[in-house]
Each structure stands twice: as structure tokens, then as C-alpha cells.
Amino acid sequence: MSDAHGVARDQLRAFIERIERLEEEKKTIADDIKDVYGEAKGVGFDTKILRKVIQIRKQDKDERMEQEAILDTYLQALGMVELPPDA
């Protein structure tokens, strides 16, 4: 086998091993997050709402406001919320 093939093989192995380590770290972190949600649930917090809050906090203000406006429009169209008195 040529030296170039050996280098490519070693480089490939290094990438694979890095990915495997990161996947294991990701699993560990996911387990830790699950434990935190379990703790929160244990003291009475609604974990579905916590997940929603986390999702909302990831959005920027403009994106969040746009989604809230669209949601309000849809809910009003379905008669699920009343229109404001000044509308």
C-alpha cells in the first residue's frame, strides 16, 4: 500500500474516532438533559411547557413576534380566541 493510502486511511480512522467520541458525548448530554427535565417535573413543572420555553428562547425577537402574530391570526380564524374589542 502506498504512503498516500496509509495517510488517507489514518485520516479516515481519526475522523471516525472523533465522530464516535462526539456521538458518545452527545448521548451523555442528552441523558443529562433528560435528568434535568425529570428533576423539574419532580418539583411540579410542566416539562412540555419547559421545552416550549426553551424553543422560544432560541428564536430572535422578530421571528418570535412573527410566529405569534400568525398563530393569533389562525386561532381567531378558527374561533378559538376572541377578537380584541378595538378590532
Automatic annotation (TrEMBL):
Residues 8-79 form the GapR-like DNA-binding domain. The keyword Hydrolase does not apply. Residues 5-39 form a coiled coil. Keywords: Coiled coil. GO terms for molecular function: DNA binding. Belongs to the UPF0335 family. NCBIfam families: PRK13694.1. This is UPF0335 protein EV665_103128.
